[in-house]
Design brief:
- This protein is an all-alpha fold and about 60 residues long.
- Helices cover about 40% and strands about 0% of the residues.
- The chain has helices at about 1-20, 35-40.
- The two termini are about 15 Å apart.
Amino acid sequence: MKHLLHRGLLLGLLLVCTCQTSLYSQDYLRLLFYNTENYFDTKNDTLKQDDAFLPEGDYHWTP
């Protein structure tokens, strides 16, 4: 249920942002980027300093 709410809010935000771009001149381009690398990477890699994003890390992230 929590994931459904997050996806709904994200979809709503996306729709609002795309509708607002039509109010501006066609000379502008808006680009949105969100880094999701740590969201899907749950395995420990000794070459990266990303221990806070592991399930047993500071943020206690769980899949």
